[in-house]
Amino acid sequence: MTTASNKLDTLLQETRTFQPSEAFRAQANFNDVSVYERAEADPEGYWAEQAQHLTWFRPFEKVLEWNPPHAKWFIGGKINAAYNAVDRHREGARKNKAAIIWEGEPGDSKVFTYDMLGREVDKAAHMLTKLGVKKGDRVTIYLPMIPELAISLLACAKIGAIHSVVFGGFSSKALRERIVDCDAKVLITADAGWRRGGLIPLKQNADEAVVDTPVEKVLVVQRVGEQSGAQMQEGRDVYWHELYKQVPNTPYPAEEMDSEDPLFLLYTSGTTGKPKGIVHSTAGYLVGANTSLRTVFDIKDSDVYFCTADIGWITGHTYIVYGPLSAGATVVMYEGAPDWPHRGRFWEIIEKYGATIFYTAPTSIRTFMKWGTEYLEQYNLDTLRLLGTVGEPINPEVWMWFHEHVGKGKAPIVDTWWQTETGAAMIAPLPGITSLKPGSATRPVPGISAKVVDEEGNEVEPGNGGYLVITKPWPSMLRTVWGDDERFRNTYFGKFQGIYLPGDGAHLDKDGYFWILGRIDDVINVSGHRIGTMEVESALVDHPSVAEAAVIGRSHEVKGQAITAFVTLKDGVEQTPELVAELKQHVVGKIGALARPEEIIFTAELPKTRSAKIMRRLLRDIAEGRVIGDTTTLADPSVIDSLKTMYKDSE
Ligand code: PRX
């Protein structure tokens, strides 16, 4: 773990700590440290207590059944996630409170009160029913960040259908793979999406994706209109606004779901080429999401909560839709890019809506730092009282910049470590209790048992590093991998019996703080997005000119990691700059722009062990310009010298 140990050196020189201010502590939802002890002594009791913040159609009879690696939470309970996120607020004082404040990329905006949002969700629930969707059916959603995206998730939840959101930046092939894997019956998409003034041809991608799949109906939101060039296929495609007129204006009764009924699937990259459909349960997921809003995000009725993630990722599911809405908060949802039409866009939105909580990714903050403070200085950010980061380790100097320039030295920062699989924040401060150290996600939240262990699974002494593990089940944990329980068992519980392995390395400091060091498997974290090296390699070898490919993540100043591909070409194929461009585009076509390799290096051979395993660590060392250590396990050590020369030439 050479990359990790370099990072560790910088991190461990970090000695600054920041105590919660008296003012923040006084008003915090959680300001008594005893909550940690209470939760540790009786985790089931703690989670049962948190579950009371939701509205149940029928109370659960038992908190947990744990047959490792399978957990069941809140057994016997009946609940609905959309009812909890929307309808219950319509019945009380929040009826006319803003639920979603939506800001469109071209500057158009809309506000949905809880009552208005509820009506839209009911309409969409009727629409899905009319299209033949029933409880337990899968609905794939491929939309830009428009209100219909949040409404679609909630409508699925309301009728008990399982949603599977595919990020709008994925290609038609990636979309197709995800549709086929879960046998989706209906696809919800848009004619096109806006991105930096240009169009993303979502409908066109969708058309290519659904051919010969179980998709029977395609529901199309008109976001762009005529300019989109979208073609509708008679009998299969139907416009959202047209179907809208054909369904009743009556409330749609929420389906009473069992606690363990799946709420959604979300695909994520792993160490093999095929993405995994992570399955989340209804009650447990919702309890996790809702609890973290109250603990980590200190949510209040007066808050305006702005999370910059896309709902195509887990952060958007939990911290734009289910978490804030189940807590009755006001959430800001933004369609566009941070630099369109200008670099002050986020700060402008914070000022415009008086955002109080701002949650974003370290990669964005590094970009803002590069741009300089002039953009944010033009806006009033005084309403911000709490900041958050997620997706990758945050460098201490980036944390400090965020703290000083955005938080004006007063807003605490919650660095939240979690994953698609964990459903909600796992290692993060409680801002009214925990002292902060820049670069550390601090300690596990109440009710979560995280440890750092060595190769044998023994807990390391403070001051040491190892594997991050979660030793006890938690409500919002994934239940399985869709259609592949064996993969679930092997990936997450294969190394240590009954103990969840997230795939991250971590260091435990003398105060028991966790410092996350990054992935220890073949997963690259590009701008906070997980990409499997195997996925990119498969995309490359699919090209007729490519014989073999090895893909690694190398450190990158802004993205955290960037994708470098080492490629050997088939005999007789010429190494040209045009081919480099073509191969990059090929990967974009197979997966999506997020997987575009930063650089492609042609090589006559790849470094392999004598048992023919590609030595990715060596390739990473070359890409990061490090002196190569022991290469005695290499089948042919001379490969290294030619690779180093080739890498230099390509720079
Ligand atoms: O490596 C960790 C990193 O992101 C991975 C999870 O990615 P994903 O499932 O896409 O979810 C991202 C948003 C929750 C983790 O295995 N990661 C996430 N948050 C942090 C982090 N690494 C360090 N610090 C974090 N706060």
In short:
By secondary structure, this protein is of the alpha/beta class. It is built from 21 helices and 30 strands. The structure holds adenosine-5'-monophosphate-propyl ester.
State the main characteristics:
eight-stranded mixed beta sheet, 33% helix, binds adenosine-5'-monophosphate-propyl ester, 30 strands, 651 residues, alpha/beta
Folded structure, characterized:
The protein is of the alpha/beta class and 651 residues long. Helices cover 33% and strands 23% of the residues. It has 21 helices and 30 strands. The strands form eight sheets. The protein has an eight-stranded mixed beta sheet, sandwiched between helices. A seven-stranded mixed beta sheet has the order 5-4-17-16-18-19-20, with helices on both faces. α6 packs across α7 and α8 (172-182) crosses α9. The chain is globular and about 75 Å long. The chain starts with a helix and ends with a helix. The mean pLDDT is 94. The structure holds adenosine-5'-monophosphate-propyl ester (PRX). Adenosine-5'-monophosphate-propyl ester is lined by residues 268, 314-315, 390-393, 415-420, 441, 502-504, 516, 518-519, 525, 530.
Ions, cofactors and other ligands present here are: adenosine-5'-monophosphate-propyl ester
Distance between the termini: 24 Å
Helical segment count:
21
Q: Helix share of residues? A: 25-40%
Major sheet: arrangement of strands: 12-11-8-6-7-14-15-23
